[in-house]
Amino acid sequence: MLLKDKVAVIYGGGGAVGGAIARTFAHEGARLYLAGRTRAPLEIVGAAIRKGGGTADAATLDALDVDAVEAHAARVVDEAGRLDISLNVIGYGDTQGEPLLVMKPDRFVGAIHNAMESHFLTATAAGRHMVREGSGVILALSAQAGRVPYLNTGGFGVLSAAIEAFCRQLAAELGPGGVRVVCLRSGGSPETPAGQHKQEWWAKQAEKTALRRLPLLTDVANAAVLMASDRAGAITAEIVNVTSGELYD
Q1: Cys bridge to 181: 129, 171, 209, 221, which one at CB 3.0-4.6 A?
Q2: Coil, strand or helix: which one is 146?
C-alpha cells in the first residue's frame, strides 16, 4: 500500500473527482477526512470507504471560511496525530459558456477569487501543521485550459493557471520545511456528471490526445496516489500532466 497509515484531508471529497481520489487513497491505506459544503455526498463516499474496510470521516465545511478551515485542520491533527496529505478539489462556480466580451465581471472574477482563496486557506492551514512535523504533501488540481486557451472558458483557464503558479510559490516556501507541493493538470473526464452531457464534444477532445482517449477518474486518482506517496519524494513544484497527451510537456 503506497499510502499506508497516511492521514489525508480532501476538500471537495464528495464530488466526482474528490470521491474517486478518496476511494483510491483509502484502497492504498490512507485514513481519510472528507470535507465539503454538502454533507450527503460526503457521507456516500465515506460509507463506501468504510464498507471496503477503510477509515473515513465526513465534515461539513466551507473552504472559504478561514476559521472553519483552521479548526478542521487542527481537529484532524488532534484526532489522528498528524496531517500528511491535503488535497483541494472544490468547485469554483459557473464561469464558462460565453465570450469574455459579454461576460459579467462578477461571473469572471468570482470563480478566480473562490479558487485562489480556498487554495490559500486550505494549503496554508495544512502547511503550518506539516512544517512543524517536517513532512507532508499538498496537492491541487488544475486543467489543460491553464496552459492552452480555449474559447468561452471564461475565468476557468485563468484560475487553473493561477492555481499552478500558487503551487510553485508554495513549494518554494515550504520545501525547506520538508513539505512537497504538486499540482495535477487533468484533461477532464467524460465520467463526471457534467461530462456525461457532452459525449460528442468529449469524443472530439479525445482525438486531440496522444493516447486517443481522455483521462478517466481512476487515472487522475492513481496519479494523485503516486504524487502523495513517498515514492515521489523528490517531486515538488511540479505540474503533473494527466491529459493523456493532449499537452506535450
Answers
A1: 171
A2: helix
